[in-house]
Design a protein that fits this description.
CATH architecture of the largest domain: 3-Layer(aba) Sandwich
Strand content: 15-25%
Bound molecules: zinc ion
CATH class of the largest domain: Alpha Beta
Structural class: alpha/beta
Shape: elongated
Largest sheet: 6 strands, mixed
Radius of gyration: 26 Å
Order of helices and strands: HEEEEHEHEHHHEEHEHHEHH
CATH topology of the largest domain: Trna Endonuclease, Chain: A, domain 1
Length: 304
């Protein structure tokens, strides 16, 4: 399961605090408090002991924290253009970029040139992949649950693998029930309206499938859609339930069985909503595909 770095809000010093805890867990000494810079990034100094034959020499690093996961953009060379001044001012040996995305190739070339010129003894980029690889290891669970509570609870982040993000909006108040799934006031449900025929031989008809907040929004929608019939019954599924991978799978299988075996008839719009729901839920239930797998999927669709 991938970590959603957006769980840490950008408008606070939490990313910096996370960086300090992460570095401490890696075994570094934290030598200075978090300092906010003019561009809203943060920095602090750490040190580690490097062993020689006769003594242990501390190696000091300047850690620059940039939290850009909401933009998905790599950190550019221009954003670290003052790195030399900061390295000199802090009297450190090395530079660490602690980023929630990655470093651009321009920035890597720039840091390499600083190293070649002797401005810095070494540099290291701790990017999202590096952080992720550590957060799943033993000893990092406390940090995980403190900064990424949804991840720690096994809650899947949203992954966009269609052309664009597919929301699941309440048909009444328009709130996106998928994005806000793990907030405390989320009561998102999928509602199916079924028209039962008195005649046992005639199959039921699913006349409408819609998404709503359970309670007031749903009641208003039921009144709207059930006004012409008293034989219509509603069934509810909580989105927080059907987003569980095994429940998601069972729901798809049940849908196939209903149509093929039980002869339940779907109105075209209702079936279209079911299809949309499967696609939208998959953004939280399936693992994110690699770029290569996405290309293969597209090829398969074309061949079909
Ligand atoms: Zn609503």
């Amino acid at each position: 399961m991938n970590i959603d770095f957006n769980e840490i809000p950008t408008e606070s010093d939490l990313w910096g605090q996370f960086a300090q805890d992460f570095m401490r867990n890696l075994g570094f000494n934290i030598d200075s408090p978090l300092l906010k810079l003019s561009d809203d990034s943060y920095e602090f100094c750490v040190s580690e002991q490097t062993s020689g034959k006769f003594n242990w020499v501390p190696f000091k690093w300047l850690v620059c924290c940039r939290h850009k996961s909401s933009t998905r953009l790599a950190v550019k060379e221009s954003e670290e253009s003052e790195a030399i001044e900061r390295i000199i001012r802090n009297k450190v040996d090395g530079f660490i970029g602690f980023y929630s995305t990655s470093a651009s190739s321009g920035l890597l070339l720039y840091l390499e040139s600083l190293k070649a010129k002797g401005n810095v003894k070494d540099y290291k980029i701790i990017d999202s992949k590096f952080i992720e690889s550590y957060l799943i290891t033993p000893g990092f669970d406390l940090i995980s649950s403190r900064y990424f509570p949804n991840y720690a609870l096994g809650r899947q982040a949203i992954h966009i693998y269609q052309e664009k993000y597919l929301p699941i909006c309440c048909e009444h108040c328009k709130k996106d029930l998928l994005e806000t799934l793990y907030t405390s006031d989320n009561q998102g449900v999928v509602v199916r309206l079924r028209l039962r025929n008195a005649d046992q031989q005639t199959p039921d008809i699913i006349t409408k499938v819609y998404f709503a907040c359970k309670g007031e929004c749903d009641e208003k929608l039921q009144t709207k859609y059930c006004q012409n019939t008293s034989q219509s019954t509603a069934s509810w599924s909580f989105i927080s339930d059907i987003v569980i991978p095994s429940a998601y799978l069972e729901r798809i299988v049940a849908l196939i069985n209903q149509i093929s075996r039980d002869g339940v008839v779907y109105e075209p719009d209702a079936l279209e909503t079911e299809e949309y729901l499967i696609r939208a839920l998959s953004q939280r239930t399936l693992r994110p595909p690699s770029a290569g797998e996405l290309i293969r999927t597209k090829r398969m669709l074309i061949n079909q």
